[in-house]
Task: structure prediction
Amino acid sequence: MSSSESRLPAYLGLGSVLAVALCTLWLALAGHLDLYINPRYSAFTIVLATVAVPASVAGLVVVARGHEHVHDDEEHEHRPGGAGRLTRVVLGGVAALVTIGVTAAMLVLPPTTLSARTAQQRSVDSATLSNATGSEAAVSLLGSGSVDTSEYGVKDWAALIRQTTDTTSLVGKQVRLSGFVVPGSDGSFTLTRFVISCCAVDAQPVGLGVVTDGAVPDEDQWVTVTGALAANPDQSADARIVIKAATVKKIAQPKDPYEY
Result:
């Protein structure tokens, strides 16, 4: 393998690191970083990206200079000509294109949240919840009668319903929850939120079934549902409790669409 070929992974790797670091800093400045990672990791991520930008640039310079010295020696020993300089330009250009391409894509394509299709692929209506819903100690408190449920989100109610053996005690409880729509059938849908432990890659959808006498909103539409918990009229469904909606109001996607 020639020295040019051996350095190609270094150019591409450093160029990719630079692109990701630049995109991370742009997302932080634009206020969109929380769409991709849990806010508790934002400061750490920004610090790493800030360090990665000059470090990757310095790495590219070192690789380019090393390549130039090695190739100058090879030219002196074996052949004259400008092939080495051309190779350096090509490799540097590839790294630059990777950096510019990824960065431009992040600038041009608007940041988006995970969709209803992703929620369906990850089994939003599953009867089980992973540890993304919180620690066992925190979730076990949900069934306590002394706990104030007025601040419960979709994640909390979903965990409580799935952990309560006698769900009749939940029937009639009033809720007011916001999430996006994953359409069902027969005038129903799943009010859904994504729960993020670390980043969007590990995001898990959680949801509550909603039955309504009105029209089911479009897929991915954000809504606020008010109503009461009721026994699921579909006895064959895994979810034993649903929300009998009194109102379903369309809303804009919140600034922080995830639960943690």
About this structure: Residues 127-141 have pLDDT under 50 and may be disordered. The helical segments are 3-30, 42-77, 83-108, 116-121, 136-140, 154-163. Strands lie at 174-183, 188-195, 204-211, 222-231, 241-250. DSSP finds six helices and five strands in the chain.
